[in-house]
Amino acid sequence: MDEHSAPTNINTADSGEPAELAHHIHRERRVLLIEPVDKEMQLIRKAIVSQSPLYDVDTAGSAREALARIKAIPYDVLVVDNDLPDSSGVELVTRLVAEAPNSPIIVITSVDSPELALKLLTVGASDYLPKIGEYQKFLPRMITTNLQRAIIIENLKEMYDRVEKSSRDEALFNRFVVNIHGSLDQADILERATQSLLTEFEASRALICLIGDPDNSMRIVRQMTSDSLAPISDKSSLFSKYHDLLLDVGERRPLMVMQDDTFAFAKDVRLELINYKISSMVMVPLVYRGRLMGLLHLDAHVGTKHDARMWTVRDITLLSRIANQLSIALSQAKLYQIVEAQSTSISKLTDLCSQLTQVVHSTKELTERTESREKVRIKLSTREIEVLKQVALGLSNKEIAEELHITEGTTEVHVSRLRKKLNLSTRAALVRYAYENHLS
After folding, report:
1. Rounded to 5 degrees, what angle do the CA atoms 232, 234, 240 make?
2. Same domain, yes or no, for 357 and 403?
3. Domain range for residue 109?
4. Can you give the three-state secondary structure of 289-306, one letter per residue?
């Protein structure tokens, strides 16, 4: 076959389908068949099409031609003959895995060798079929099975990614909460919060505005920038216009703006965005007990690595939760200042001051516990943490296995790994480590 020829698709005469029927069939999956022998190629293709009419089959007669095709067209399944004129099966499978990592690869070969099968599976092949008897009849089912398995794996990966993202968001949120609630000084809280926002969200600028007396205007109280960027001036209309928008719509909701957006507010502030070289920004209101206190602002700067950043729904949801906690922390700090000012003359306020101090101490303890658990979480897997908790309860390996629905042998392996990872030689040392790190 000419390696520069166009992809060869299903021929209705070969497949035995009436031309009218074939014309209306919507073929949902693309299969690339890589087979150097024309007779074998036609035999295999006919078997696939006759048993699986929803598969569209393209062919290639060499490794070079196959690699060219998968760069131009995405294929759902790759069927590869091990005996190609320009490449071994192992070499081609290795390259195909790199070029099309999500496409199952089925290798067919005239040699029925366990050693060869192991090599092919090791480098990334999904399945292996010797050319014995009418082997082609087994291929359609094998294609379907491997395709279904690939879809399941892809779905599991997506689910795992969502769980990982959710876990990272929760860890970020917990770090922020512990950080800002570790102080009752407003200036310190603003400093910590702004630094955390700038760092955690990798923003170009992070700032906090509060509504001040007596004119009830929105004013910048803390601002930090990265890459030596120019700070936003107190005279900027960005925040006053957002304040007016919140009052007009009567809703306290976040706002995300791109420099090239065309809705009314974006047009009103476009000159400000251009002046401060802001490619995108997000503003989130600070609300405490229904009262608007101020806002959070994060932006991406034109010309930086975050220039084209889009603030996602995840970002905005997380920032809304953070804004809620910051509102509480600032309100607590303000209350604490009032309490301190009057604590010498009013005993009740003195008691309240004591309670707030206890809150700080409790928060510090929470910080220590959170940091300790975070270190353990990073070092150990979820299952290892579960086993460590059971060890701390004094359970034997057999009892732990029954509790976690695993085998006793698996439990022994986990306990052994815990000792190695934590550099502890005895079970008693594991118990002590669990108690010290609040895992009991």
Report:
1. 100
2. no
3. 12-151
4. CCEEEEEEEEEEECCCCC
